């Protein structure tokens, strides 16, 4: 009688285990050479926590969904959606840049300013 749910349980979504790509230059350093396998796994798990790539991908996906929603509501045109989508695709291909100390100071000073 109550066996129907067992036959068709529906799609199951399992959490994806993220893997961090450790460059060969980092794997071959003299500091990591003497580490045991468990110690390397622990170090890589710490690197995975501080990896910003999954967060950037999630944010980009949210932007894409927001663009589609804005288009469905009629707030932006299909041409604008394509333009912004191409901009997001280009941003994903680029590596994030570090802000130099000089640029960081100019960014902080421009935060308080208002545009006329």
From TrEMBL:
Annotated spans, Disordered: 93-116
Pfam families: FAM216B
Transmembrane segments: none
Compositionally biased spans, kind Polar residues: 106-116
Family: Belongs to the FAM216 family.
Record protein name field: Protein FAM216B
Lineage: Eukaryota, Metazoa, Chordata, Craniata, Vertebrata
